[in-house]
């Protein structure tokens, strides 16, 4: 009988460790990460042959930067949300074509519609690493001072659009 009593704490410890491990290995996608760190200050080449940097962002206003790829199925799924954000905030939604070719990215945007004011190229993925990308698609809200205010991992959904819109509507000093 005493042997069973000694096994109870061990069983509880194993159960707790299993629950903790399951939470670490399967974080909930779509949860917002509120940040306050600088956006990458590197210049990116753009699909239109120019250059763009996001710290500070173009127009010195709070913007959205979405990292996407033509080969990414979740990027297609979130595209209507980006189109809606682009309609609500014209000229403030930017794209970064991650580990893809300019030709494939242009075809993707031709087929799906182009919500982006400009599209930066990141063929080797280094720009995504500079952002802190964990996998496409991911969306960042960048303040007029070049600080990342919000990071949404995974495809945008309707609730995400509300959160991102709120971050763009909030005046920053």
UniProtKB/TrEMBL annotation:
Pfam families recorded: AhpC-TSA (PF00578)
GO biological process, one term: cytochrome complex assembly
Subcellular location: Cell envelope
Alphabetical list of InterPro entries matching this protein: AhpC/TSA, Thioredoxin-like_sf, Thioredoxin_CS, Thioredoxin_domain, Thioredoxin_ResA/DsbE_sf
Any Gene Ontology CC annotation: cell envelope
Gene Ontology molecular function: any one: disulfide oxidoreductase activity
Keywords tagged on the record: Cytochrome c-type biogenesis, Disulfide bond, Redox-active center
All copies of domain Thioredoxin, residue ranges: 33-173
Protein name listed in UniProt: Thioredoxin domain-containing protein
């Amino acid at each position: 009988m005493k042997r069973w009593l000694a096994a109870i704490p061990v069983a509880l410890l194993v159960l707790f460790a299993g629950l903790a491990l399951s939470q670490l290995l399967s974080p909930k996608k779509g949860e917002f990460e509120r940040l306050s760190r600088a956006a990458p200050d590197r210049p990116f080449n753009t699909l239109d042959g120019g250059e763009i940097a996001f710290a500070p962002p173009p127009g010195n206003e709070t913007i959205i930067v979405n990292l996407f790829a033509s080969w990414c199925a979740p990027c297609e799924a979130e595209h209507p949300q980006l189109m809606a954000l682009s309609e609500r905030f014209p000229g403030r939604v930017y794209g970064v074509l991650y580990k893809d070719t300019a030709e494939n990215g242009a075809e993707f945007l031709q087929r799906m519609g182009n919500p982006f004011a400009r599209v930066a190229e990141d063929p080797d993925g280094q720009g995504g690493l500079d952002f802190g990308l964990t996998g496409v698609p991911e969306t960042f809200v960048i303040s007029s001072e070049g600080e990342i205010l919000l990071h949404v991992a995974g495809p945008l959904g309707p609730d995400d659009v509300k959160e991102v819109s709120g971050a763009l509507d909030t005046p920053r000093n």
